[in-house]
Amino acid sequence: xxxxxxxxxxxxxxxxxxxxxxxxxxxxxxxxxxxxxxxxxxxxxxxxxxxxxxxxxxxxxxxxxxxxxxxxxxxxxxxxxxxxxxxxxxxxxxxxxxxxxxxxxxxxxxxxxxxxxxxxxxxxxxxxxxxxxxxxxxxxxxxxxxxxxxxxxxxxxxxxxxxxxxxxxxxxxxxxxxxxxxxxxxxxxxxxxxxxxxxxxxxxxxxxxxxxxxxxxxxxxxxxxxxxxxxxxxxxxxxxxxxxxxxxxxxxxxxxxxxxxxxxxxxxxxxxxxxxxxxxxxxxxxxxxxxxxxxx
Length: 296
Known about the structure:
The protein is α/β, with parallel strands linked by helices. It contains 10 helices and 10 strands. It has helices spanning 2-6, 12-35, 69-77, 90-96, 112-119, 158-170, 188-194, 209-218, 256-261, 279-295, and strands at residues 64-67, 83-88, 107-109, 128-132, 148-153, 176-179, 203-206, 222-226, 243-248, 264-266. Helix 6 packs parallel to helix 10.
């Protein structure tokens, strides 16, 4: 045995230590990739604890958990957002590039697994979570001077609404208007899908969409409802210098009352075999077309 060791052999203890070292490096590498959102966090059932028993914590009506690097960074920069507490991993803190001591809010250093316990196994939190209060309630009077706004008729999926919100900000729309019922409220899922856009555009929820469209008409907006069976292509339907695009939920589209209230119905002309798009894709195309008209 001693001869083998002298000739360059490796003892079992040394092999074990080396294996443990490389295992720790691989684990740290995976954790870093999870924090960057490059790979999903595995479900609890794969971790021998938690199983299928995870349930989201009960949140108070005035409590919102935001997560993800872009989402949290935008929320921290929003002066209208009331922040309660920041929970962050060391790697995520480095990527946020902020001085937590100057935030003026409590913070705690955590592990990715700590955030999993709060947000669930499917949330790609990238190592950061911000507890906040919801943004102040916005009314139609809060509309910016932008001549372009977007209205959603009972689009319920927060992922779609978040994606639409990103497009609305990209095309400098003045507001995103939805109904209070059958529409997502402010949440971590909505904010993560919007990737920071929630902090950059008024998200106005109204009780009666037909009444709200009437108010928009009084404000000088031409309201155009997107419908796959619309009588004319969208690009030939624009008029005026203030446009409100109205989109309905996938499948059922615009409700009858909404169809009767808008100034015009229009379709997106698609020459291919598929004649309908995901509502978030349709919104982006319609916003682009509206911008072309308004520039004209």
